[in-house]
Amino acid sequence: MPPAFHRDTKPASPAVISLFQPVEVVSGHYFVIPKHFWPQLSPGSAGPTGQCGPAACASASRITVVLTRSRGTMAAAQTRAAMERERATLNDPRGCSSRARREDSDQTTIFRRLEEMIQLLMNIALAWISSCVESTLVLQACCGDNTTGCTQYTRIEDMVGVACCSNNAMNTFSQLCCQDTVRERKMGVRFAELCCGDQALAYDQTCCEGTVHNVANGNCCGRAVYDREDRSLICCNRTLTRAGPHDVCCGSEAFDSGRTQICCGQKVYEKAAYDSCCEASNSTFAPFRSDSHFCCDSPQSRSAGRSCCYLRSESGGIRPAPYDTASQCCTYPYKDISAMANGTCVE
Question: What region holds the Galaxin-like repeats domain (predicted)?
Fold first, then answer.
């Protein structure tokens, strides 16, 4: 989310440069050129003898500049020196006499003076901008609902790469946003490019479900990390387990592929106790020994006179059902197990 940038202005005390004659001004950012200055430079401003005296030239050169600045002293001195040179030129009787004699035939001097004055005003404006902006411009980034804890910056270049991480400002070049938490990219001699949960992740680390491990190019098993080339470990159902070279997974455990163990219902059993697995119609599993039991929806004892009838369901499937061969019958159409009376099956 990009931050909201605010440009606030703060009033500064005005610095007044009054050249040649003091002029009372109102504080603010403006430049004052006396209105009567321009007629003094136009034809017809000369006296009866065709010359302008020093007093007339001096009054024509009065310029008052009002600047609001914090570091404009040097600019003001430069402006004052430029205006002193302008005044000296205008106060030179010989210069005035020469100009007056050429006014009727050549107005080049007048336009040159105007251009110089405009250039001078532009220089004054640039000096004001360079000094005023630094003292009145406030750079800050506000993120989310955080309007009181905005981050302020002293230089505009410091805001390059600024972004929001939840309610906090961050620099995307030196920081990461990891689950609304600001993290530094530089971690000692390492440099982070990614996040792992709310932590920064370096190139030589491995992230496993939000947990950082100091293992390069590791493989994850849940939150744990391991080396896939390590044959002593096997990942079974997000659980890291010690295993032999021929072991495979049985649920969250490892077993020896049926050599001495069986896997029944995602559990490992030793073959010395059970050698078979019985699956019930409700998808449950139970281990049994095949020499003493058989599977018919559940392990059934062979010595109990029971057998298994495979009944047809209404949906067309078949389900196993155990029955007592001494008192029950399993007959066509195999929809139900029927009773036996006097050794005969009753339909």
Answer: 163-297
Mean pLDDT of 217-243: 91
- Tens digits of per-residue pLDDT, 73-104? 444 444 455 555 555 555 555 544 444 455 54
3-state secondary structure of 298: coil
Give the closest residue to 23 by CA, choosing from 54, 65, 73: 65
287: β partners: 277
Cβ(66)–Cβ(16) below 8 Å: yes
* 241 vs 250: CA distance, rounded Å: 11
Contact 242, 258 (CB under 8 A): no
Secondary structure in 3-state letters for 77-136: HHHHHHHHHHHHHHHCHHHHHHHHHHCCCCCHHHHHHHHHHHHHHHHHHHHHHHHHHHHH
Q: Among candidates 341, 337, 332, 301, which has minimal Cα distance to 321? A: 337
Candidates 288, 344, 337, 272; CA nearest to 311 is 337
The structure tokens listed for 215 are 């293992």
The H or E element containing residue 60 is helix 54-60
SS3 per-residue string spanning 153-209: ECCHHHHCCEEEECCEEEECCCEEEECCEEEECEECCEEEEEEECCEEEECCCEEEC
